[in-house]
């Protein structure tokens, strides 16, 4: 890897973890002084999309420079980490990584880089490929030597093997072979490329800063560097940014659009506008739908901070019940969900939230959160609010029950671990210990994001986590876990 100063402290672990899924943030900037530092800022704004690791690759006119580190963006690229200084050049791509598996490996940290026949290519991917294992089996048989367990690496190998000449055509050739969800940014010595899968499951926006083009997962990453939002990259679109301007291609067979509705529920930052909708507004409207669908007499509406705040405000406005901060969040711990073990997760909730006792004692409380996944958070929070003296605790959830795993890039536990997969709403109510429990309906959610109702024959969004209706084929999953094990056998 000529000129690539990558972190080589690879952990010595089996090169196959039990899942390929990741959820991530991507950023790219072309032809702008301090590209590395601006990318670090962009990744900082996208930190909510991935807190496990961050990486940046720049091109300085003669060589690619890579810095990939585990931990938060500020740890690696802030003043203390000091790695930004090394990232010389006027073009950069960056990536935040998030995965559930505790044994995540340094070599999975993106952007991935390869020295191809035509030059270097750095690739950062948000999403998840649903035929990655199949592709990998084939590529390994054909002689490819994988360095990571990441599905993104399969794309690099496909680009390397493509019989086409120019990198853009090779990337298109590669992407025509992959299935799944992807928003990608790629950097060559002369181009910054952005692509969204034909269904447009994950977001990707185009921005501009004094003539320099930017690609980012969300608009909040444009705001942080003072860049202007230009437009969303369209589903199935590839933009190629060079010194001559921006070219747009639609190289794939068109598919029905299926933007991830969970981005509005939880994943995207509330100050972002994705696919023409402001996330905060959408969450407020979900809360209002919830209040109209499942009203309850109470003294206050209390959000589970921070993810429940916009929906709780919407609930409070629609119901006329006062909004109160009955739970205070300590901001110096990460999201509980990503802690690797159950015991730490339980501990994490206590570390993170504290009830405002003076406010809650003797009051009837409506708790609002965005979703119930395993139910760990809700159970603890309900208990905490009861212990603080609340006389009634009603839980309202700003999404339909999460009954199915996501295979398109949002890290969710196995379907069997999802509370709503195992239990009815009444069973869940008993499990979390609430006086009442209600979820927003699917149509309520669709109304909140601006659709009259869900079109059951052809849903306007990907809502597989709530409906089990997966728009993109699940080639690997249909082979089950055995697809992965047989891969190990093949290699041996
Ligand atoms: P649980 O305790 O497993 O029910 O998790 C529910 C909490 O996790 C909710 O408060 C959500 O805000 C949050 N959450 C939901 N989905 C995700 C996800 N994919 N990644 C991280 N956190 C999530």
Structure, briefly:
By secondary structure, this protein is of the alpha+beta class.
The coarse silhouette is: globular
Number of helices: 18
Number of strands: 23
Q: Looking across the biggest beta sheet, what order are the strands in? A: 3-2-4-1-10-9-11
Helices and strands, with pairings:
Blueprint: E1 25-30, H1 35-45, E2 53-59, E3 64-70, H2 73-77, E4 91-97, E5 112-116, E6 119-129, H3 132-141, H4 152-161, H5 167-175, E7 180-187, E8 192-196, E9 205-209, E10 212-216, H6 220-223, E11 228-232, E12 238-242, E13 245-249, E14 259-260, H7 262-267, E15 273-274, E16 277-278, H8 279-293, E17 300-303, H9 309-319, E18 327-329, H10 342-352, E19 353-355, H11 357-360, E20 364-369, H12 376-387, E21 392-397, H13 419-422, H14 425-432, E22 436-439, H15 442-448, E23 461-462, H16 464-467, H17 475-478, H18 482-491
Parallel strand pairs: 14-23, 17-20, 20-21, 21-22
Antiparallel strand pairs: 1-4, 1-10, 2-3, 2-4, 5-6, 6-7, 7-8, 8-12, 9-10, 9-11, 12-13, 15-16, 18-19
Helix pairs in contact: 3-4, 3-18, 4-5, 8-9, 8-15, 10-12
Adenosine monophosphate binds near residues 335, 374 and 411.
Describe the overall structure.
The chain is built from 18 helices and 23 strands. α3 crosses α4, α3 runs parallel beside α18 (482-491) and α4 (152-161) packs across α5 (167-175). The chain has a seven-stranded antiparallel beta sheet. Helices cover 29% and strands 23% of the residues. The protein is globular. The chain folds into two domains: 24-258, Aminohydrolase, N-terminal nucleophile (Ntn) domain (Glutamine Phosphoribosylpyrophosphate, subunit 1, domain 1, 4-Layer Sandwich), CATH 3.60.20.10; 278-467, Rossmann fold (3-Layer(aba) Sandwich). It is an alpha+beta fold and 492 residues long. Adenosine monophosphate binds next to α12.
